[in-house]
Fold each of these.
Amino acid sequence: MEQKIRVLVAKPGLDGHDRGAKVIARALRDAGMEVIYTGLRQTPEQIVSAALQEDVDVVAMSILSGAHNHLFPRVMELMHEQKLDDVLVIGGGVIPDEDIAGLKAAGIAEIFTPGTTTATTIEFIRNNLKR
Amino acid sequence: MPDSPSDQSDRLDTRQLARLISQIERQDIARLGLLSVLHQRTGRAHIIGITGPPGSGKSTLTDKIIGQLRGRGRRVAVLAIDPSSPFTGGAILGDRIRMMRHATDEGVFIRSLASRGHLGGLSRAVAETIRAVDAAGFDDIIVETVGVGQSEVDIVRCADTVVLVAVPGLGDDIQAIKAGVMEIGDVFCVNKADRDGAERVVRETKAMLEAAVLNGAATRFSDLYRAAGQAETATAPATDRAAVSGTHHVAKLLDDPHHAHLRIPAVLLTVAEQGEGVAALVDEIKSHYGLLLATGLLEQHRCDNTAWELRNTVSDRLLAFLDADIVEAALARLAGGVVRRERDFYQALDELFGTVLAVSKSAHFNS
């Protein structure tokens, strides 16, 4: 049986805009992936716990509230605690260019800013799976 | 193969369980050793099926049932199944959204499963996944099916107690779920009961259940209520009166002396969004399980279900032989022979069957 790519799509933090996350979720589904959508306003603890139970290959987070410098590294810290180092973590949303290097240093594999096509994201996932 | 427990008394941790389920989903041969070790630790959980049409509130109800069971000190696992696209194989698994408040509770494990082309309301991996979760020490396992229509009844093959969730407003009757799905409930629940028409759905459901009993239809519940009725022939009439109103699990058909022992399942009203009626629903679910245990039907159902699963799995294995190269070659040759009138259809069939049997004798299995 072929290996299905399982992706957790999550919205950490307090902003209430999940249109982008839903667009990504649908695009990944149409690319043949299994997308676990967890909805709005998730804490890093909830996201990592879901990633663990769902045994996902990828965690894709979207954030528009500006709290990315706090929430993304916190997710990475918890992922590491749970030994989920073989899970690809990517982020997206309204994220200033000057913040991207720091987020990558924290372990986020790639940051997709507004204007990125869904095809780019899909290709990145397929080429960068860690297991 | 992920970290298999070296000591049998070790409980699977979340990570081991999650990875074992992935192995089960992709039918990885490496899972078989671990599953074999775990088998002795299975059979203890109460397996609860939640089924009903799309949008009837199954996930929200499941969320509230988890809360109730946690309050009663039970460890709860949920397997939530959503459909895969028949075209791309992709899936959006969204049942979890309604249950995220339990995400960090260590006594709750939630796993979303895509149906991956399996019909019948479940995924092919469900039965095995239930055993894995059971071995991990969960007391209650809730299996939430895909939104069902009329004939997705596989849930009866793996759940001890099936909760059928109906809602008002699905037409002028409960036609949509009358024939197939309606026969598989052990506990009936009319959700969104704050909407118009809920009482009517209850009335119609009860009438349908009573008619099924009076007609002697071999529904899933009729055996149970017959057995339960015979076990306690002299119950107080007052209790029975209460039963008819739907507040007690075993509602007797009081007015018909010829059917004194025939009972129908409870039909309950819930508003899952507000948690209304959920405590009573969980009481009914547990009371049904108690009745299964008391009558010995639990073991009988599980034997029937295991036989069903064995039969299905062996037929999958047999079908797999048809993909063998040598069988494919024989198929092409024999088909040509039939078309050219060198042999008739049944001669070809016999020859093909012989080839399949020969292949099966030298086969190795991975499922």
Note: The beta strands of chain B are 46-51, 76-82, 91-93, 108-114, 140-144, 161-166, 187-190, 251-252, 263-264, 267-269.
Amino acid sequence: MNLLELNEISVEYQLGKNNILALSNVSFSMYPKEILGILGESGSGKSTLALTIMRALPKNARIIGGEVIFNGKNLLNLSEDELNSIRWKEISIIPQNSMNSLSPVHKIRDQLRDILLLHEPKLDEKEVINIMEEKLRLANISEDVLDKFPHQLSGGMRQRILIAASLLCNPEIIIADEPTTGLDVVTQYQILKELKNLQSAKGFSMMIISHDISVISNTSHRTVVMYGGKVVEIGPSDSVVESPLHPYTRMLLEVQMEISKKTQNELHSRTNFNKPHKSVGVNFTHHSGCPFVQRCPFATEKCKTEAPTLLKVNNDHYVSCFLFNK
Amino acid sequence: MKSKLKSDNNFFYKYLLLWNRFKNYKGGLIGFYLFLVVIFIALFVPFLPLCDPYSIKFQSFLPPSFSHPFGTDEMGRDIFSRVLWGSRTSLSVGFGAALVSSIVGVLFGSLAGYVGGKLDELLSRIIDIFLMIPAFFLILLIVAIYGSSIYYVMLVIGLTTWPSTARIVRAQILSLKEREFIYAQKVIGSSTFRILFAHLIPNSIQPIFANSILQVASAILLEAGLSFLGLGDPNVVSWGKMIYSGTSYIFTSWWIAFFPGIAIVVTVASLNLIGDALVTILSPKTEERGAYA
Amino acid sequence: MEWKDYLLRRSAQLLLTVFFALIINFLIINLAPGDPAALMAGELATKEYIEAVRERWGLNKPIPERLVSYLLNVLQGNLGYSYTYLQSVSTLIAERIPVTLLLTLTSSIIAFFVGLLLAVKTSQKAFSKVDLFVSNMMLTIYSIPSFWLGLMLIGIFGVALRIFPTSGMVNVRSTGSGVFLILDIAYHSILPIVTLATIQVPIYYKIARNTIVEQSSEDYVSTFLMAGMSTSSIFKKYVLRNSLLPPVTVFALHLGYVLSGAALVEVVFGWPGMGRLLLSAVYSRDYPLIMGIYLVTSITVSLANFFVDILYTLLDPRVRYK
């Protein structure tokens, strides 16, 4: 049984006079109680994917097709009210951590309370506080932060508050968008471990979005590799890491191996993965053919004109590449 | 590589780009065309078939009519002709003051930004303090004591409004001076003077340009206020002075104050519309939005 | 304490600004062509009076001593003697400042709310036709000279429609007191306040609109959206609260501009405040009075900026004291 099903989702951004395809026919499913990793560099469409599921795309984005099935309902067809009853209560998100992921002029207490009361309006003040404190403890942070403003906290503390916030309504699915970006290596490691423990203790499903193959392979059960707005490979994380199929995945792993001794920061600059979020779509000016064709060492004439589709290679491991056709 | 080390001094190309973006701002474009009209009038008013603006040969208090489109004033002068002639006063004060203000502002701003350290701290403090002193009252005081010839008015407005330019220039220079082409100039041993005047200032001219246009607008309003209080140059036709003489006759002859006011609004608004569009275009936030929206 | 340090530093800056304004005033007197004592004494002064003024302000001494004597005088509240009103400048100004502040503050508060309201409306459709139209309208209103606007309002509502009085703060023929006096003043102040508020609306509108547009695309908006909060609740609870502070600082930053507008509007409406005083001072070249007005407005603006900065640190938790 699939908990969440994405079918043929396409999203485009309007940039000036051009339309740019950010997601092109993306399909995959999420199983109950699993950690699903979404791996891809900036511009691969992975954050757009999270925003599409939450239906929180920026104004210049448009969903041009596909469906997101959750509990038998297509989230993309729900009214705003119906959607708001699912948001956070059923599916919550740990948004990309930034200075302003939370309102800078409101105390943490007021912001968490507002979110909780949206979905549990009957709670009295005492219950609200109990729940907030419980979730903060789960996220391994002291309840003292309730009376602080976001700017008074470190990046790691803010990330933990966002994790606590995502747990507020005991959702079935939590989407973590780059949960370790901007944190030091030690904190990164701790937070990933905590997220993993939380998931196995609470039994929710989690989608971890990252550009960092080590983050994904250390946490997730299955991995979806994205490139240029398309899914290029899906499979159990172990087999994706041990026997990668798509040339892009292989390239990523080689880079990872080559510089495994170096710090995370260097990885960023070497592979040019830390481009700003707004560069979404720079690679997708071409609409036909394989998105990876320009960087692929095995590219043929066919790859330039025809787009490969996902193909089952072995047990639960899929790839979208002509190298595996027959 | 070579292009990176050279400063981009192709002015013509730069301004062509600027114009191409400016064209998309309707308000700015309307302002631009209005301003062309005002400039045309100011330049060619002596050659237009108009009555002498000083001549008092007509009947007083004539309402607008075909022979006197804006009517006549209390002394029997043709208001239409006086309004057109007044554009010269307003524009020369506006541009003169903005020029003085820009020169002083660029000088102080670039010194503060380029030299840095203690000098920057001192100049920045002076700029902050100067910005807090209400310019109008200071200008009024100086003009009242030192005299109100049109050149004085220009000079004084310019000398009291330079801090806003200085602030912008300082910020520009601060960000430019770390760039490669400036570093390259230092390496090849260019003098500080040359780096400042041949590279840093020319490259920060666009934001100054936008700010200067807004300063022309505010200088015109300041001059109007001064001459309304009787501190304008008594030897020239000034819209502010015309409005003041109209206050006494507002009960009977509204046109005396009405038309010069419209002239001020049109002139100042055209400049504000241009300036605002330019500021929007040149602000880094717009580029970000342009890429996203 | 960090905050105390900030308060101390900000107070020092305040004193420095006031000192700077005084120095400028001092330089203007002493660099003026001719005899500074004659300048301070007035055109019709007798020789004896000029000498008395010279003695009083130390104008017969070298420059450094003059400065000390000037500062001492000002410190004691002595801004000079107006030879047209035959009164001390400080008394004259003190009498009129409340009237001017009544106009300025009331109109600023009205302009703040009108500007904010307009900004809330147009920022919902940022960069739409309506938004651009209102922005350009605001730029045009910002280009209107205050005194001319006041005059036109008098022409329309006072002369043509006869709804409002055209001049003064009270009806000279009525002898009302108490509530009636207050109502009379309120009635007389409608047109001048509308004039002054109108020229300020664009200032508040612009900053409020830009702040709201900026805040509406902040990350926290999408956080709350994804948490299931409706767009209108996010706006009311979070965006608006985050957008209120910048317009407040604008009040102090533009106070100098508004005071000069108020002075000119007072002249038009025959309002018995600083503007009228300024006009008559200019006409009779009453230099001590003009200087006094310049000094008092400078100090008022510096004080307003000081208080708003302090208020800001209390209202905005993010402020880092620098």
Note: Residues 207 and 282 of chain B are 7 Å apart (CA to CA).
